[in-house]
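User: Teach me something about this protein's shape.
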Amino acid sequence: MSAVNTFDRRQFLSVATLAATSMPWGLLRSAALKLPTEGDLPSLHGATGWINSAPLSTGDLRGRVVLIDFWTYSCINWRRTLPYVRAWAMKYRDHGLVVVGVHSPEFLFERNIDNVRVASQSMMIEYPIAIDNDYAIWKAFGNEFWPALYLVDTKGQIRHHAFGEGEYDKSERVIQELVKDAGAPSFDPGLAPVDASGPEVAADWQDLRSNESYLGADRTEGFASPGGIRGNRSHTYTLPEELNLNHWALEGDWSVFAQLIRPARSGSRIAYRFHARDLHLVMGPASPGTAIRFRVLLDGQPPMAAHGSDVDALGYGVIEGPRLYQLIRQNEPIVDRRFDIEFFDAGIEAYSFTFG
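Assistant: First, the predicted structure itself:
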């Protein structure tokens, strides 16, 4: 454990643990006043840049309630938490809360601060963002997850953390307790209204039977083109006669690298058999500033009412930057479906499928 990381997981007692006892909320609020101290807020000095703010230090944040939110902008799990963090930042900013987003990148394109800046603007993120390209802050916290949030009191002590999606009401109640303890003026005790659309809408967990699928050679699973992956060189792939659930395949000349796949020419295709309400693909142009046209099909037909926010009803869309694209959002009943995407231009890079 790093010397600057005094966070001790053995001390962890979350509001979720308290809630599991089914105690009335009035008692839970009293218990929340005794939230454990999980360690000092680690230093933020390892940030390689800042967006929406001058550099912030732990000293600058002392006396404020702080929410540290670890994220990477193409992560679907984080995207579904963003509406809540954004709502908390707005509701409690005049009551002593400071939200700091720590952007620790997963993919290479997320290391480009201009890409992060464009993404944060499109997602209406106005709070300070620390660019953590060297993972210095990530390591100082001993963090292992996107998303992860840590709540810090006015003395610079971590009092609560939450990993992954869900339990938003509990996290907000902790925020309320901490700002109240800090002497904040009265505020509406109700939960902040949340505005979610597109990829930010909560997953349909009941019907979700497809997990994130990486396309690069380092982490890929379920690849079904005959002959398997041929890494780091161009190869002509073909589609199998049938695809099993959660298997995918390529058609055309593709190069498969550690984190991504790239077609050699137009007309190349990816096919995937999935079971989920939503299908997303993280992808972008190989050359910045170029636009790549594509079309998606669902069971061989235009998606129509099942199209995602980044395509029209006939399945047409354009890639204009590296990010997560929502391609399918279907209505019930949710069953196994085949997804195909064809690229009308060369020069795309595809990273991973995610579902919701």
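Now, about its shape. Confidence is low (pLDDT under 50) at residues 1-33. The longest strand covers residues 248-256. If you'd like, I can walk through any region in more detail.
User: That's plenty for now, thanks!
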